[in-house]
Amino acid sequence: MDWSPPSLNSPRRREQNFALIGAVLSGAVIAFGLLLLLVARVNPEAGSRIREAALDAVAPIWSVVRAPFDGGAALSNDAGDYLGAVAKLRAVTAERDAGRRAVERARALAAENRQLKALMRVVEPRVRLVATARIAGASSGGTIRSAIISAGRAQGVRPGQPVRVAAGLVGRTLDAGDGATRVLLLTDAASRVPVIVERTGQPALAVGNGGPLLEIRDRVGAEVPLRPGDRLVTSGDGGVYGPGIPVATIVRAAEPPQARPAASPQGLGYVSVETPYLPIPAAPPAAAPATAAAPPK
Q1: pLDDT digits over 89-112, tens only?
Q2: For residues 179, 182, 183 and 188, what is the CA-based torsion angle, rounded to 10 degrees?
Q3: CA-wise closest residue to 199 among 230, 224, 223, 222
Q4: Counted domains in the chain
Q5: Which candidate, 205, 207, 190, places its Cα nearest to that of 144?
Q6: Per 3-state DSSP, what percentage of the chain is helix, strand, and coil (rounded to 5)?
Q7: Where is the Rod shape-determining protein MreC beta-barrel core domain (predicted)?
Q8: Is residue 201 one of the residues assigned to a domain?
Q9: Spatial distance between the Cα atoms of 112 and 131, rounded to a whole number of angstroms
Q10: Domain membership of residue 102 as a residue range
Q11: Residue 46 and residue 39 in contact, taking contact as beta carbons nearer than 8 Å
């Protein structure tokens, strides 16, 4: 048998050397820690100075040791951000392409509609802006919901004209004075607005009840259920409101359905008064009765 000691370059000897070095370092650390505890117990000020000196000595070494790990973490974060940015860019590009296709289809349909209307000589009613006025105040007592605007007959405002903002319909003019007009709001109990459900095309009636929401009544095709979020726009029936004006959004689909108005008069500031979409022509004056001829004498 070979009883010769292992050579200096053998794996076993290297393991023994590493184990010895680790034990010495561990012992030194433990001894230094015990020494610090002892000094801090006997002389706290000296212990504090030793700890500060140790921190000053270890900080540069620790920063050098941490540098590769910090760099790896930063690189990993950058790689994740890059991959996330690529995915977001692809999604945005897809949305942009879909939007462009939708715009192109809409333009083609609009051009086709213009051509068909020109061929059929369709006459579209024209809505004209009458005045833009500030809301001077709004009442919400009981079932009466109305507002006062700072424009009247002197500015061309007459009863029965639509009042709206960019967000949607506000109501219609009710009583017009020389410089102010009372507006009947959508939520008033006397308000009735013909609407259409955009998603299904169902005609209905948006009715005010004096509260913050509208009730949807007389809906054609009630077997097709409504969904929360369905948009209601004016249908143009009745000739007062033009078609396509946002009115409300369904918030409760169960019977009776309820909808939140698209435009609230609170905090609106300014509103626009327009001419009716299709005003009813005034009736011709009645002909005066013919006087009976005097009998001959």
Answers
A1: 888 888 888 888 888 888 888 888
A2: 170
A3: 230
A4: 2
A5: 190
A6: 40, 25, 40
A7: 139-260
A8: yes
A9: 33
A10: 14-118
A11: yes
* Cβ atoms of residues 200 and 188 within 8 Å: no
d(CA 209, CA 145) in angstroms, rounded, equals 9
Hey, what are 122's tokens? 């369709």
Q: Does 87 or 122 have the greater pLDDT score?
A: 87
Dist CA 141 CA 118 (whole Å): 50
Tokens coding 95: 């949305």
| CA distances, 205 to each of 44, 192, 202, 251 (Å) | 85, 6, 10, 16
Within a domain: 286: no
> What CATH code is carried by the domain that includes residue 175?
2.40.10.340
> Cα(249)–Cα(244) distance, rounded to whole angstroms?
14
Cα separations in angstroms, 63 against 56, 186, 199: 11, 69, 63
Closest CA to 206 of 171, 248, 172: 248
Strand residue runs (E) in 154-276? 162-165, 168-176, 181-185, 192-197, 203-208, 214-217, 231-234, 246-252, 258-261, 270-274
Q: Kindly report, residue by residue over 246-287, the tens digit of the pLDDT.
A: 999 999 988 889 999 998 777 778 899 999 988 766 656 666
Answer whether residue 8 is part of any domain.
no
Q: What is the pLDDT of residue 1?
A: 47
Q: Are residues 35 and 138 in the same domain?
A: no
